[in-house]
Amino acid sequence: MNAALLAVVGLSMIAIGYRFYSKFIAEKIYQLDPDFETPAHAQRDDIDYVPTNRVVLWGHHFTAVAGAAPIIGPGIAVIWGWLPAFIWVVLGTMFFAGVHDFGAVWASVRSKARSVGALTGDVVTPRARTLFMIVVFFLLMMVNAVFGVAISDAFQETPSSVIPAWTAIVVAVAIGVLIYRMHVPILWPTIVGTVILYAVIFLGDAVPISLTDGLFGLAPGAQWIIILFVYAGIASLLPVWLLLQPRDYINGIQLFIGLGLLYGAVLIANPTIVAPAINANVPASAPPIFPLLFVTIACGAISGFHGLVGSGTTSKQLNKETDARFVGYLGSSGEGALALVAIIAATAGFASLTEWETMYSEFGNGGLAAFVQGGAVIVSSGVGISQGFATTLLTVMAVLFAGTTMDAGVRLQRYIIQEWGSIYSIPILQNGYIATAAAVSACLLLAFGAGGPSGEGGMLIWPLFGTTNQLLAGLTLLVISVMLVKLGRPARYTLTPMIFITTMALAAALVQLRTLFLQGRDAGWPAGGLLYPLLLIDLVIVVLAIFVMLEAGSAFMRERRSAATAST
User: Fold this and answer.
1) Helix 367-383 and helix 330-348: axis angle, to 10°?
2) Nearest C-alpha neighbor of 98 from the set 565, 482, 527, 473
3) Structural domains in the chain plus CATH codes
4) Which three-class secondary structure state does DSSP give residue 38?
5) Would you state the torsion angle of the CA atoms of residues 165, 167, 171, 177, taken in this order, to the nearest 10 degrees?
6) Which tens digit of pLDDT belongs to each residue from 331-356?
7) Which residue from 371, 377, 301, 378 is spatially nearest to 343, judged by alpha carbons?
8) Torsion angle, alpha carbons of 433, 434, 439, 443, to 10
9) Total-model pTM
């Protein structure tokens, strides 16, 4: 299969979805009002609520939701062949992710920028809100733990990425000060900041940094995980204009350039996809493609985490309600484009089918490593830069996006804990520092609990993260559907993807429950013992999700009957 043709077809379909389908949803379903006063104005505090240029906000939203997940998931899922992954990413982006992300921003903006978990109390029932927010907290804990482990692994595998990754934080703070405090027009900080980000990649190549094994009695991976969460905790307490917004914005620019470089290299090099369209020789360790495909690619087709970002931070910064289409739907389209190029890199960046099969000898292999390795080969042959530089470039790109997701994820965890403090009148939980410390502690506990003392086994969380992520997407779509019925608008455009993704996620959760139990039993103690907490978390999440769906389903039918009675 010709990789360039696959790229053109995929991008064209995603672009058609934004141009036509998102316009229909904006005008006929969500019915955006340009005169509606958004929470960014009504509740402005210049810390969390800040009216923001839609391009800057798109950069924040795009990079916060993209992270490393649309690279890791597709990079694992191609083990079943490139065609199923391609179809799910493209159609999922067009009809699932865009509607979900766009809808979460819209619903939150119409509800004083409350998170989707909090507004469930009004739309469904207070009991559903409580259960929903527990699911959300578990998801955020897994997102942050997984990405902390992924960044740690990347720093160890590519030490040349360390300096460029941390330099991006300094650049982001400088841009935030220049734009919001010195009122410098956005153009020059963007240009200079982007040039610096790419220039320090050369410095990273010249001065790779590796941590010393045994420092404080910890392995390098464990040291990086702790450092990353200390940073994420501090970042979550800073005003959004100082770090979160400019970091996400400048990373969004870098992602745009990186995507252009990758797609340009694909078109120039025109590599051949060596992986099979449908893999008939799947390793014995691989689970069944149905339903696991739809949770392995947990981002890039639809992702419940996007609803948390859209309703947790993005909605607080939306300048006009009409910006929700550009920020929400186009943000998910950008992630779809990233997932698409990850599929191409992980299937066309290898010299032969044998080399590809070596990479994918076990389920869970590939992921970020396949993207970086395959993408570096394509970029090197297409653009002419050295493969080593291309490897550092792609690693830095992935690390920065995972880092921005951690920034937003820990902040969102803080919001949830503080919301619990407000709902249940527990003053200590309303304190930002206490809430942040609790959030970070929970993430570290999961990362080391699942990954062992070094944290290196933390990627065991990935399948569970994918299942929880998709269950949350289904719950979010169901809440949006109830809102639409209350407003007398068609709900089938949100209900259809909700039913599909919820069914797949619940089926996958049941498969994983069995797998975790069998693996834990066969591994014995203590190795197998690490799997039982994950099994318990999986079981709790499934039970909570089912109860929330029953509550929301009951509310949906109640509102539908009320609407039918009113019309007669």
Assistant:
1) 80
2) 473
3) 3-457 (1.10.4160)
4) coil
5) 110
6) 999 899 999 999 999 999 998 999 99
7) 371
8) 100
9) 0.88
